[in-house]
Amino acid sequence: MKWLELLTVGGATLVSAVTVVVLYSLGVRLTAMGGDQRAAAPGWLRSLAYACFALCGLAVLFGLYLIIPYFSG
Amino acid sequence: MVALVIALALFFDFTNGFHDTANAMATPIATGAIKPKTAVTLAAILNLVGAFLSTEVAKTVSGGIIREGSGGVQITPDIIFAGLMGAILWNMITWLKGLPSSSSHALFGGLIGAAVAGIGFNSVNLETLLQKVILPAVFAPLIAAIVAYICTRLAYALTSRHDPETGTKLTQKRGGFRTGQIFTSSLVALAHGTNDAQKTMGIITLVLIAAGTQTPGSGPQLWVIAACAFAIAIGTYAGGWRIIRTMGAGLTEVKPAQGFAAETSTASAILASSHLGFALSTTQVASGSVIGSGLGRRGTSVRWGMVGKIALGWLFTLPAAGIVGALTALLVKTGVVGVVIAAVAGTGAVLYMFLVSRQSKVGHHNAVEVEEAGQAVRFAKKKAFARARARANESARANEPKDTER
Predict the structure, then answer these.
(1) Domain range for residue B389?
(2) What are the pLDDT digits (tens) for B332-350?
(3) A58 interface with B at CB cutoff 8 Å
(4) What is the mean pLDDT of residues B256-265?
(5) A21 with B143: Cβ contact below 8 A
(6) Are residues B253 and B347 in the same domain?
(7) Do B99 and B170 share a domain, yes or no?
(8) Contact B158 A26 (CB under 8 A)
(9) Residue A29 and residue B56: Cβ atoms within 8 Å?
(10) B chain contacts of residue A32, beta-carbon cutoff 8 Å
């Protein structure tokens, strides 16, 4: 039986999905904080938010890079 | 015969496309992230791209379940013809009912039925069947649902903001997830292309090998890849609005954050499984994700009646397509007349279902009631929801300080 493969697929799914969702959610949260009226440092928060979105995008691209056989040879 | 089978295979690819548009695009359409027309166009383009990206699945997909090659039985174009017939008819029936069922299971079921009727029971490899079809069918929705549940909880936990002093809600900007949905749903469409177009490529290649025009063991030829890619893209563009309605609104009410979590889980599950070789059904993963994200958000109810209906549909997919495949195989066995009868009957059935579908049209305009008609309903719902929440808050107020302390 292929239990190990099943476990790998489940684990990989969990790790990748959680990474993307956490990064994006942090980005959303930081944007919301930056948008507050009495935010301490809106500029910082905004750029941190963008960094989160960018990291999230990178995570997705890295995943695609791993999957597309053209790149991984 | 070979030409007929290839035409049928491409038509199956087409039904596969419009059957599965829902997997990628139901949730963004439901949350209003993308307009319906734009969504199917985007999905079609990405399916096209995805189909060209990889041919790994095509090489392995159809192999193994039916014993072929040396020491096994000779698989003929007739068998494949019968199998495809079963798969297409079942796809059309489930589409008419608006049920998201697995196109791959329909294909496997049809092929198995055809092989059993045409050759005998010993032609089916039961162990591979268990490994490749039945176990994934159980685990795919489970994995997807669990992951989507966790992701939805995380997304809501990370974006929930309360004023530390007064406890009132601050702006959360959860609408930001809508933008993210555009990307995640695109990813699902891409994953679908890399996965499902491959199955038809595998079938056509199998036919070409069986007919002796291609050397055994070689990969799909370029024109096969292109034809499959276009067939699935056109099918996707045609859009299975009935199934989009089921997935987008029938299972649970979908909010942007949920949709984002569900799509991320779907995309990761499909890509992970097709890369690591434990093939999961796109449809089952997507349905599992939507259910999981529905469970993950408080105040959302999952319509279990609909879930039961879908599960029942999954249960029937393999045997039902198998029976049609078997009947067709028996017809085809009788000779040329049988083939003609099967082809005419199949076309007739497809046409009939198409005509029935015209009577209660579900198109991009009413697949998911987003704005026009939904306005009044949604308003009332929001009010009721707010009332319910106020009541819940009152009763939960006693516990709340403890929650914030943790």
Answers:
(1) 371-406
(2) 777 777 777 777 777 777 7
(3) no
(4) 86
(5) no
(6) yes
(7) yes
(8) yes
(9) no
(10) 159, 161, 170-173, 176
B121 and B66: one domain? yes
Q: Which residues contact B336 (CB under 8 A, 6 or more apart)?
A: none
Domain boundaries, chain A: 3-72
**Same-domain pairing of B364 and B377:** no
Rounded to whole angstroms, the Cα distance separating A58 from A69 reads 18
**What confidence score (pLDDT) does residue B297 get?**
79
Which chain A residues contact residue B147 at CB under 8 A?
10, 13-14, 17-18
Question: Are residues B113 and B39 part of one domain?
Answer: yes
**pLDDT of B23 strictly over 80:** no
Based on the fold, state whether residues B316 and B382 are members of the same structural domain. no
B224 with B282, same domain: the answer is yes
Percent of residues, chain B, with pLDDT higher than 70: 72
Per residue in B320-331, pLDDT (tens digit) is 888 888 888 888
Q: Domains in chain B: how many in total? A: 2
Of A1, A25, A68, the CB nearest to B54: A68
- Cross-chain residue pair A13–B272, CB shorter than 8 Å: yes
Shared-domain flag, residues B157 and B303: yes
CB-based contact (8 Å) between A7 and chain B?
no
Confidence of residue B404 (pLDDT cuts 50, 70, 90): very low
Residues of chain B in contact with residue A56, where contact means CB-CB under 8 angstroms, are: 180
User: Which residues of chain A make contact with B269, given a CB cutoff of 8 A?
Assistant: 9, 13, 17
Which of A58-72, B343-357, B369-383 has the lowest average pLDDT? B369-383
CB spacing of B139 vs A14 below 8 angstroms: no
> What ipTM did this prediction achieve?
0.85
